[in-house]
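ESCALATION

Customer reports they have been waiting on this structure for their group meeting. Please prioritize. Original submission:
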Amino acid sequence: QGQLVESGGGLVQAGGSLRLSCVVSGLTFGNYNMAWFRQAPGKSRDLVGGIDKDGSDDSTYYGGFVKDRFSISRDNTKNTVYLQMNSLEPEDSGVYLCAASRTGSRYWGQGTLVTVSA
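Update from on-call: job pushed to the front of the queue and completed.
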């Protein structure tokens, strides 16, 4: 059974940066596409972006609200996917969750809370 554990969230001022990590265990990490989602209170879960299983430079994609502020990368030797967030805005506040996907299965982490103050 796969387990995903996010970390790196916290309180940051608008304009600041955070780097989130998601460590995966119980799965063959290199076989899974990874993605980050976020969910604010009372709102739907939005796709932040994702990275294909091989992690090549052209394998990332992002939601429209990212606007070149965020970057996703992965280290298959550490079973970890990262989300670098720059120029954070209060609207970026929410719980950030990572997901591991392949045909027929998806695993979720519990999330890490990001709060951006004005």
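Sent to customer with the following note: The first strand starts at residue 3 and ends at 7.
Escalation resolved.
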